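@channel sequence for tomorrow's demo:
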Amino acid sequence: MDPAARLPADVLRGFRIGVTSDRRSADLIAALERRGAQVLHAPALTIVPNDQDDSLIIETRRLIAARPDVVLVTTGYGMRRWLEVADAAGLGAELTAALEAARIFARGPKAHGAVRAAGLLDVQTSDLDTTASLVDAVIAAQRPGRRVAVQLHGYTDEIALTRLAEISDCVMTVTPYRWVQSNPFTSAPAAAATLEAAEALGVRREFVQAHSDYVASAAVGPVTAEPLREAGIDPLVPDRYRLGALVRLVTEELTQRHIQRFQRDGVIIELRGHQVWVNDRRISLGPSALALLVALASSNSVLSRQELIARLPDTPDEHALHMAMSRLRRALDVPGLITTIMKRGYRFNAERID
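structure tokens (generated this afternoon):
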């Protein structure tokens, strides 16, 4: 049973979660919304429909003609889609015959399951769910000078292909699912495309910095996480590279690390994502007032006016600070919670509780 299912239905209330994936995004969004999250869906890339993938049909014909000795299957979804497109093009039987004659290496349990479901026998599954480990397995099998085919997972893995080319007479590729731009940015898979979108908008530095300051990121597996890590973002990655495990990990991270509770004179103040609760009363705060509350609650000391002005999202000046502070105090309606320290700044007066 899903441990998160035992939590309150609104366990993620107040949190705003962005989903950048296209494939299986509906399942992920539904799981997060069931837990009370507000989900923003902005796929940087989408998958080419089966009936428009002429390139895959051309690649499949070439593979059938070449009769590879070794085939590397990197994703279960890619394997299934490859066979579907081949069947639709009248190439299903020929492709199956070519694969039956080859020695198949599968990357991880999903690829393994898809190979078996197609009635094929894989020779070996890589120990780790990575393309590098799959190539290691092929090299360890000591079969140089052969024709090798690689089912790519949405983009060309140049390092893997270079390693295979060093031990093979011929390396060919098939790409069962191709990413196309859903907005005017350079094509690349998943996380890399999101970074490129930020670059094109001129906010890449701010995007990366936000993940150090207040945004938590999560990726379904190490392959997806790699572009983020290269950019300086350290995403959460579940131990099992599955959608359910990703949802559980996000739920645990947000509820255990991103909810702050305070107490003053018997009043409980709770900050959770973009929502603020005072006892059982939900408080509506604008962006500036919320930014001030988060800054003050996160500090154990007096914050100067200049420090708070720097936290304002819009119109960062003295007048904007006074207006936002006035709105914040009026909305919270907790006497003495935020005090003015003459000639110094402001202080948050509440005790942090678990």
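heads up for whoever presents: The first strand starts at residue 16 and ends at 19.
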